[in-house]
Amino acid sequence: MYVDPEIIRLLAFLIGVIAFAALNAAYLVWLERKEAAHIQRRIGPKEVGPFGLLQPLVDGIKLMTKQLIVPAGVDPVLFKIAPILVMVPAIMSFVTIPFSETLVARNLDIGLLAIFAFASVNVLGLLLGAWGSRNKYAVISAARVVSQNVAYEIPMLVTVVTLVMISGTMNLSKIVALQQGGFWHWNILNLSASPLMPVAFLIFFVCMLAETNRAPFDMAEAESELVAGAFTEYSGMGFGVFFMGEYANIVIGASMATILFLGGWDCPFGLFPGVHWFLIKMYFLIFTVIWIRWTYPRTTFYGLLNLSWKILIPISFVNLILTSAMLKVF
Amino acid sequence: MIDYLREIISGTWSLFVGLGITIRYFFQPVVTVQYPYETLPMTPRFRGHIELVKDEETGETKCIVCGMCQKACPSNCITVNGEKREGVKGKVLTEYTLDFTKCSLCGLCVESCTPKAITFSKDYNLAGVRKEAYIFDLKKRLEAKN
């Protein structure tokens, strides 16, 4: 029987991507708990398995055995579809991410655009989940999530436009290929394109935190004030899937920052590039994301919007103008 | 305009200072006591529930069954009983019960005890599921220790 190798390749990538997303989502929870514990000089999970490594598995079993309560009065279709709408785009985004020169599921010419298109579905999932659960507090919370995401998508996209102008392509593999050969070629230090490049990286990173609803911008589920906010009505694995979607989004965000600013799979000294360098940079960024969560308190909503509209957007536009001027002059 | 830029730069800098502090704590050794596996020695002034003191010479309790602790206790949680025995001077302790559900750890019993026969124990692992678990027979505890 003849099977097209392309189909086998696609299946392998499908399984690989889902396994990568799910394992990351599970073990980032473990990493988060460990890192939080060590910042507070505790130990963290240690009972289940060596170093508590089986803890995510046990948590998963616990979540799955819990009763899925669908409250009376909810919109059953929206209520059930919303967690999937958060999780699926996060997994879809992995399709275009190049982990190394050869390790990429689909080398799209519009890879960057595709990822941002999928990323915006995530917000839709949150909004539908809150709307479907017929809870006014969840709807208010979801409105905050949407306004936050709109506010932070602008500086992020303007920064990305700057990078697209520098690279001249939206193909993620080509963007990485242009940064090969040591850390002085990476976009974060590409000072000849724009002297504000390190600032642009910071802007991108802050926007990524806000887009993934991470602290200090975690308005969507401010546990202490809103009691899980937009997902108030979700129980068991419904809530678990929202949670996994959030962690998968962090992986996507860290991968994007790695690809766009830190040279992707390139070695900082120009030697032995490969997938390991991509993973090292990505996990360092994820470590930083968690580190930030356990350093800063949650901001107020006004502080959040002020930061975006008064600081990040003007600076990213200045960077855009500066870059276009530099490109025209040199 | 210059204030705006100064605020951004000093604000960003302060964020990095905060990150520096937390990463320093991250690499410092853990300070929490891993409780069920590790315990701390209690300080000498720690007030647990009361306990009978063993007389080093006889190996028995020092209690002379005067009943002062029972009288001093404001919440009536101590019960002392003794009996007269042949050939023994004074009374012999037969029952010393502490109802720890009522005890407020005021320490008046320890203060009023002339022969210094009761003291505070260093016991703090006092979880239980029944009220009866907190009615301590101190005489039995002392015998179990011997």
TrEMBL record, chain A:
Catalysed reactions listed for this entry: a quinone + NADH + 5 H(+)(in) = a quinol + NAD(+) + 4 H(+)(out)
Entry-linked PROSITE patterns: COMPLEX1_ND1_1 (PS00667), COMPLEX1_ND1_2 (PS00668)
GO BP terms in the entry: aerobic respiration
Gene Ontology MF annotations: NADH dehydrogenase activity; oxidoreductase activity, acting on NAD(P)H, quinone or similar compound as acceptor; quinone binding
Keywords assigned by UniProt, alphabetized: Cell membrane, Membrane, NAD, Oxidoreductase, Quinone, Translocase, Transmembrane, Transmembrane helix, Ubiquinone
Its EC number(s): 7.1.1.-
Subcellular localization, as worded in the UniProt entry: Cell membrane; Membrane
Membrane topology reported for the UniProt record: Multi-pass membrane protein
GO cellular component assignments: plasma membrane
Sequence intervals crossing the membrane: 12-31, 77-98, 110-129, 150-168, 188-210, 247-265, 277-295, 307-327
Assembly mode: NDH-1 is composed of 14 different subunits. Subunits NuoA, H, J, K, L, M, N constitute the membrane sector of the complex.
Family to which this protein belongs: Belongs to the complex I subunit 1 family.
NCBIfam families: PRK06076.1-2
The protein's role, per its UniProt record: NDH-1 shuttles electrons from NADH, via FMN and iron-sulfur (Fe-S) centers, to quinones in the respiratory chain. The immediate electron acceptor for the enzyme in this species is believed to be ubiquinone. Couples the redox reaction to proton translocation (for every two electrons transferred, four hydrogen ions are translocated across the cytoplasmic membrane), and thus conserves the redox energy in a proton gradient. This subunit may bind ubiquinone.
Protein name: NADH-quinone oxidoreductase subunit H
Gene behind the chain: nuoH
UniProtKB/TrEMBL annotation, chain B:
Reactions listed under catalytic activity: a quinone + NADH + 5 H(+)(in) = a quinol + NAD(+) + 4 H(+)(out)
Keywords, in A-Z order: 4Fe-4S, Cell membrane, Iron, Iron-sulfur, Membrane, Metal-binding, NAD, Quinone, Repeat, Translocase, Ubiquinone
GO terms for cellular component: plasma membrane
A GO MF label: 4 iron, 4 sulfur cluster binding
Main location class: membrane
Amino acids binding [4Fe-4S] cluster 1: C63, C66, C69, C113
Membrane topology: Peripheral membrane protein
Cofactor list: [4Fe-4S] cluster
Residues the entry annotates as binding [4Fe-4S] cluster 2: C73, C103, C106, C109
NCBIfam families: NuoI
Function summary: NDH-1 shuttles electrons from NADH, via FMN and iron-sulfur (Fe-S) centers, to quinones in the respiratory chain. The immediate electron acceptor for the enzyme in this species is believed to be ubiquinone. Couples the redox reaction to proton translocation (for every two electrons transferred, four hydrogen ions are translocated across the cytoplasmic membrane), and thus conserves the redox energy in a proton gradient.
Family: Belongs to the complex I 23 kDa subunit family.
The protein, known as: NADH-quinone oxidoreductase subunit I
